[in-house]
Design brief:
Strand order of the largest sheet: 4-3-6-1-2-5
Bound molecules: FE2/S2 (inorganic) cluster
Low-confidence stretches: none
Radius of gyration: 20 Å
Strand content: 25-35%
Number of domains: 3
Number of strands: 16
CATH class of the largest domain: Alpha Beta
CATH architecture of the largest domain: 3-Layer(aba) Sandwich
Number of helices: 5
Helix content: 10-25%
CATH topology of the largest domain: Rossmann fold
Structural class: alpha/beta
Mean pLDDT: 92
Shape: globular
Amino acid sequence: MTARMIMKLRVDTARRVTPRVLHLSLVHPSRPELPAWTPGAHVDLRLPDGRIRQYSLCGDPAERGRYDIAVKREDDGRGGSAWIHGNLRAGDIVHVSAPRNNFPLAENATRHVMVAGGIGVTPFLAMARHLAASGADFTLHCCARSELEAPLLGELRALCGGRLVPWLSAEGRRFDPAVLGRSEPGTHLYACGPQGLLDTVRAHAAGAGWADDRVHVEVFRPTPDLSFKPEPFEARLASTGEVLHVPADRSLLAVLRERGIAMPSSCETGVCGSCVCGYRDGIVIHRDAFIPVRDRQDRLAPCVSRARVSVTLDL
Ligand code: FES
């Protein structure tokens, strides 16, 4: 996996689409085209103080000249969205990575069922645009408190028509996972939104026979695990046999870098997948929200994951 290209892009437009959501359209100051992307992709925004935040691209993948994102102001968040809301204006320059897609549409699916919660609707805008244009079979369940707080609902209605199912809790329509039904051949399930909604969708899917490889979940914020007590462990490099000690208060990623091993990273919170590498043996304590269960036997995210006693890395 290689480090991602960082571009200086100009904020072309900044408009508030709900009281708490800012829609930004980013363009290159001189080039007419930006790197291509596919529905479900996100970019990293690098803020002036070094913080990195991921945002799904919600525009049209066929429109190569701009990246559209929507940022919800999280007052109880880590400060990145508040900075964006408070500071970014049309004409400003921002540092933006090339797109990466951790949440692609399943190419072999015959039907797509999507569940969006609040600002989690953003990747589905691009997906719905693509699926509608290609005549695919899809349904988008869109959960929000009210119409006023549902980002880009008008645009979604125009795109999806009757395939959009709004769930507005303030109007007494709280999302009912039973509508997702049982797993059917060819149908893939996607979810993006607050942790509670993702847990609800996962629990329903597990109980209704959906195979793991047909359930796709996008996570942008780590789930805090306050009870976790890190322990020291040893990391062996398969290529040289060298053994590195990882103290309780350091991440495996930090120790690898200290040893001079160039490791890419972005979020460093276990949600983006930039740092993921292979491993051969050892009991790994997976603490990321990115690697699918089926791949956890041989891949780990060294920014957050650790091992019991020792692990051999494919490095
Ligand atoms: S840097 Fe994002 S998962 Fe490790």
